[in-house]
Design brief:
single chain, 6-stranded mixed beta sheet, 4 helices
Length: 178
């Protein structure tokens, strides 16, 4: 009887501690989400990237260099973001699936404006959501808008393969200059 009572008290204590730990657990306490409100100040800045690009390289090589420097800006802040360019000049922005859609839109908006400023062209950026160990999934696109040629139109839709009409994001219109 004495052993049974000690076992019950022990299990209640361990269970109570486990419940208390679960109730007070904060998964983001040790991993603060980066503040994306000041992207223009993240290094390397647009000016630093422009200075680091090889002026003797071909346009494609310069765009690939830009992609590596753009990627380093986010990797320095532990954000899984990659920007690559294909032979046709289309940029492919890959973001971790854990990055919220509105942050992906801000990153795509920044990349679009920088590419337009540095390379003097209206880029097309295809946005992908990437998962570890699987193929990236297309979720959006940033391209020149017919209504506002100086800011991108960023659209998201997870059903690209269904050929549905993508949904335009309206919150980017509130950005300065948007």
């Amino acid at each position: 009887m004495n052993r049974l009572m000690v076992t019950i008290v022990f299990l209640l204590a361990v269970g109570g501690i486990a419940i208390w730990k679960l109730a007070t657990y904060d998964p983001v306490a040790n991993q603060p989400v980066p503040d994306l409100s000041n992207l223009a100040r993240w290094e390397p800045t647009t000016a630093q990237i422009r200075n680091q690009l090889d002026s003797d390289a071909s346009s494609l090589e310069r765009k690939q260099q830009y992609g590596r420097l753009f990627k380093s800006r986010y990797r320095n802040r532990d954000m899984a973001v990659n920007l690559r360019v294909d032979r046709k000049g289309v940029f492919h922005l890959e973001c971790a699936a854990t990055i919220p859609t509105w942050d992906k839109a801000l990153i795509a908006h920044q990349a679009w404006e920088e590419i337009r400023e540095i390379f003097r062209e209206q880029p097309r950026i295809i946005i992908y959501e990437s998962y570890i160990g699987t193929v990236s999934r297309r979720v959006g696109e940033a391209k020149t808008s017919g209504r506002t040629p100086h800011s991108p139109e960023v659209v998201f839709d997870t059903g690209w393969h269904l050929r549905r009409k993508p949904q335009q994001t309206d919150f980017l219109r509130r950005l300065p200059g948007g």
